[in-house]
Amino acid sequence: MYTQWRTLFFSVSTLLFLAAPTLSASADLEGKIGFVASAGVNSREFGWMDIYLMDPDGRNVELLRRTRISDVYPTWSPDGKLIAIQDNEGAVLHLLHLIDNRLQKLPIEVGATSMTWSPDSRYLIFDGAGHRDDTPYRILDVQTGAVFDLDDLKGWEPDWSPDGKHLVFNVDGNLHVGEITPDFQLIRVRKLTEGAHTFPRWSPDGEQVAFYDWRENKIKIVPFTPKGRNVVRVHRTVWQFFEFGQLACPPTWSPDGTHLVFAFNEAGIIPRIYLASLDGKVKKTLQDDKGWSPYWIWKSPPQAVTPLDKQFTTWGGLKWR
Questions:
Q1: DSSP state of 204
Q2: What is the DSSP letter of 25?
Q3: Half-sphere exposure of 203 (CA within 13 A, CB side)
Q4: Alpha-carbon span 90 to 166, nearest angstrom
Q5: Which of 206, 293, 310, 317 is most buried by its number of CB atoms within 10 A?
Q6: What is the pLDDT along the chain (321 residues), one digit of tens a residue?
Q7: What are phi and psi of 306, to 5 degrees?
């Protein structure tokens, strides 16, 4: 089964980011980066997972929300108002409403990974079966609460294109892309890459897809054209990992499409969050042994009012820009 990537070993000893030039992140980078860490971001003790915000250079880490949920995998809505949270321990889906700081538990079973929002933040595609082959993905209408099946999606790790017209997803390590119709039918599906590829994510302009090649242990980018038919075999490498471990979650793009943020689990245990520019000039560690599941918040990010060096308030506190 494709999930072999989780146990791959890479037996080299030198970290690339120590050998490559390490520069400060550009002051022009906008937005905030959200990420997840164990309760008490400086602690190695695992328990409830909390959601934090930081600047694109890794500074000004603030608590956004104490979830009181274990194994949190947050998926931020494009409008910055909602976070879909998976509680893997109970296979339960929650919605965190950032405007009023309300955590809503939904009576919906979710799988182990893989959620993506529509560009208008109304619909959420999620894995309803933990990657069982006989059960399709599902779509939640967050306005009405209606849930229905997406029968044509035969893969996992989907990501919705910024224009809302395509889905990219993974089928046994090969990336596929299909057109999604207004009534949520997936048509004209074609193979985009072949290999050992996972965690596809669209660029903000919809012209590229970033992904993880777990066989080569690299973050790569592949170009996308709507009318393309052939498998794209030339990929651009953004980051080469030399340490033992695996990518922990999908990469996330900066709003201007010039940088990627991603988390890597060294030895499969110690998470680190990295920033890399597509031109190779910036390679920076943002959080060392402190977090995973980073997401670059593009629009109207909420601001935490509990800095990291202050006493955490119960459930955190928010103010909206």
A1: T
A2: P
A3: 17
A4: 31
A5: 293
A6: 433 333 333 322 222 333 333 334 445 688 889 888 876 544 444 556 788 889 999 999 888 877 777 656 788 898 888 988 877 665 778 888 888 888 888 877 776 567 899 999 999 998 765 545 555 788 889 988 888 888 777 778 899 999 999 999 988 889 999 999 998 888 999 999 998 999 999 999 999 999 999 889 899 999 998 877 778 877 888 888 877 777 878 899 999 999 999 988 877 666 789 999 998 888 888 988 777 788 887 654 454 444 444 433 222 333 322
A7: -120, 90
Q: Is 7 helix (H, G, I), strand (E, B) or coil?
A: helix
For the record, the structure tokens of 126 come out as: 């999620």
Token reading at 235: 């990929």
3-class DSSP state of 6: helix
Show the domains of the chain with their CATH numbers. Answer: 8-300 (2.120.10.30)
Tokens of 156: 């996992």
Cross-strand pairs, 32: 297
Nearest residue to 114 via CA among 250, 237, 220: 250
Q: State the CB neighbour count (10 A cutoff) for residue 100.
A: 7
Q: What distance in Å separates the CA atoms of residue 209 and residue 170, rounded to the nearest whole number?
A: 12
Cβ 267 vs Cβ 38: under 8 Å = no
The DSSP code for 108 is E
- Separation of alpha carbons 31 and 287, rounded Å: 17
Report the amino acid identity of residue 198.
T
- Contact between 196 and 174 under an 8 Å Cβ cutoff? The reply is no
Within 8 A by CB and 6+ apart from 308, the residues are 41, 42, 52, 61, 62, 63
